[in-house]
Design goal:
The complex is a heterodimer of chains A (about 100) and B (about 375).
Chain A (H helix, E strand, L loop, with lengths): L4 E8 L5 E6 L2 E6 L12 E5 L2 E6 L4 H14 L5 H12 L1 E2 L4
Antiparallel strand pairs in A: 1-2, 1-4, 2-3, 3-6, 4-5
Chain B lengths: L1 H5 L6 H18 L4 E5 L2 H9 L10 E5 L10 H12 L3 E5 L12 H6 L4 E4 L2 H9 L5 E5 L3 H13 L5 E5 L4 H9 L6 E7 H7 L5 H7 L3 E4 L3 H16 L5 E3 L11 H10 E8 L3 E10 L8 H4 L21 H6 L30 H7 L7 H4 L1
Parallel strand pairs in B: 1-2, 1-7, 3-4, 3-5, 5-6, 7-8, 8-9
Antiparallel strand pairs in B: 10-11
Classes of the chains: A alpha+beta (about 100), B alpha/beta (about 375).
């Protein structure tokens, strides 16, 4: 519950309170209530328990994604870090539900 | 140099070697044995164990995991409250890691086996969805540090369904660092602060602590090189007798933190003293709902009878559990007679073996004691 997960904003709801986000190929809906600054489509956000908590500066995106790509690509299902990251992805609603 | 370190690429072998050599050099310059530093984050411990980093640390460097697992420090009476509600017929929604955490006699999993209704959710938003689909009363048993409490606060401020209330066991990390560093037997000389919790609070939250206790604090990320770089910065400060707050994780953390989230957090919650499982009473360590949110406070909505649970004695085994000493940094899982024997992930005795962020669970998962130095001694 400590390791958030980054994702790319695909679309934002008309009210501006929710966004569809791409997490490594999985599309989910996250809440924008507590994100630190205004976000727009194409931005990357760090997410925790279904809420975006930080807009990731553009210059930092590459290095931020690398850890997660490695985690998701390599690890077996018993790996605790991978399980936590998958849990974070599951915390966001399925995009079609929104 | 800080900026250079902060931008290290993931798992660059030459960088890792250079950092390892620098760690060796600085520990030799300090010259004490051991030099103990503490981190307070399950994800840091996962990364250290998963990548076998302890095997690369200098022999005299002792990196301890402190109270960085929010599930583990949820106190026994708090679990009892969830169990009592479930046994009284109230639906309880909570995060999956909470299920097996022992209460006085029963865990939530035991309450479920006895007919209690427990829903596992990944987010409070899913508990809201559950409540919208029913007329039944649902209690969200809210655990986690400030990072998670922010989501609870946001959902409360949006307005909960009438049949949903909150049992807050949220905890606030900065105060526990004070207590742990003052514990008799503690030899902690510096703290590695958790990157994503600091995303909310900002690195500045650690400044009063660092000044008061004359202990350096370094905010670090979760990649192996982030951790090595964080440790090096910490050791350099220890060598130079500095006690600054350094942020080596600027891609996720800044000095003032997420002000939108802090505003919501403190509008809904107030810090209160309370026990953290096995550790101590932590002044301001618990996040409780403010009086104006009494209408969504499960402790006010229901009469929660936990005393009847206390008529059952805790099991004999739990009396040998040393989770509290482990989380305080004065013992390691290998010091526990139950570790890997009577206490395993499928049948945990203590909370540290339950959560994916618990020290014992992590050490058990990644091969017992992931510390090759033990064999060299």
């Amino acid at each position: 519950m400590c390791l958030g997960v980054p994702g790319k904003i695909l679309s934002i709801s008309t009210e501006g309170d929710r966004a569809d986000v791409d997490f490594f190929g999985v599309r989910r809906e996250v809440r924008l209530d507590v994100v630190d600054e205004p976000v727009s489509v194409g931005d990357y956000v760090l997410n925790h328990v279904g809420f975006a908590i930080r807009r990731i500066p553009e210059s930092e995106i590459g290095v931020t994604l690398e850890l997660y790509e490695e985690l998701i690509r390599r690890a077996d299902e018993n790996d605790l870090m991978t399980a936590d990251v998958r849990g974070e992805m599951n915390a966001a609603r399925k995009a079609s539900d929104g | 140099m800080d900026k250079q370190l902060a931008q290290l690429k993931f798992r660059d072998p030459a960088r890792a070697r250079a950092l390892g050599e620098a760690l060796n050099r600085v520990t030799q310059e300090i010259g004490r044995d051991p030099i103990s530093v503490m981190h307070v984050c399950g994800s840091h411990e996962q990364a250290i164990a998963r990548y076998g980093l302890r095997a690369t640390f200098p022999r005299t460097l002792n990196v301890i995991m402190g109270p960085g697992c929010p599930v583990c420090i949820t106190d026994v009476p708090e679990v009892d409250e969830g169990v009592a509600l479930a046994l009284a017929g109230v639906r309880v929604a909570t995060y999956g890691d909470m299920l097996k955490v022992p209460g006085t006699k029963r865990s939530l999993a035991d309450a479920r086996a006895d007919g209690g209704r427990i829903d596992i959710v990944y987010s409070i938003a899913q508990a809201v969805d559950l409540a919208r689909d029913t007329d039944e009363e649902i209690v969200f048993f809210a655990t986690g540090f400030e990072t998670t409490a922010v989501a609870t606060a946001a959902e409360i401020l949006r307005g909960l369904p009438k049949n949903l209330s909150i049992l807050s066991a949220h905890k606030y990390i900065p105060p526990v660092m004070e207590i742990v560093s003052e514990m008799p037997g503690s030899r902690v000389e510096g703290f590695l602060a958790a990157g994503h919790a600091a995303t909310i609070t900002g690195s500045a939250v650690f400044e009063p602590f660092a000044a008061r206790h004359k202990l350096p604090v370094v905010v670090a990320g979760f990649e192996p090189l982030d951790i090595l770089a964080g440790l090096l910065a910490l050791l350099e400060q220890i060598r130079d007798r500095k006690h600054d707050v350094q942020n080596l994780f600027p891609r996720c953390v800044n000095r003032e933190g997420n002000l939108v989230a802090q505003d919501k957090l403190w509008r809904v919650f107030e810090p209160q003293g309370g026990r953290w499982r096995g550790i101590a009473h932590i002044p301001n360590g618990n996040l409780r709902l403010r009086e104006e949110f009494a209408n969504v406070d499960a402790r006010k909505r229901f009469k929660i009878d936990i005393k009847s649970l206390w008529e059952d004695a805790p099991s004999q085994l739990t009396q040998h559990c040393i989770c509290g000493d482990i989380m305080s940094g004065i013992a390691a899982p290998k010091d526990c007679p139950l570790f890997g024997k009577a206490c395993i992930p499928d049948s945990p005795v203590g909370a540290c073996m339950v959560s994916s962020e618990g020290t014992c669970r992590i050490w058990h998962q990644y091969g017992g004691v992931p510390d090759l130095r033990e064999e060299q001694r």
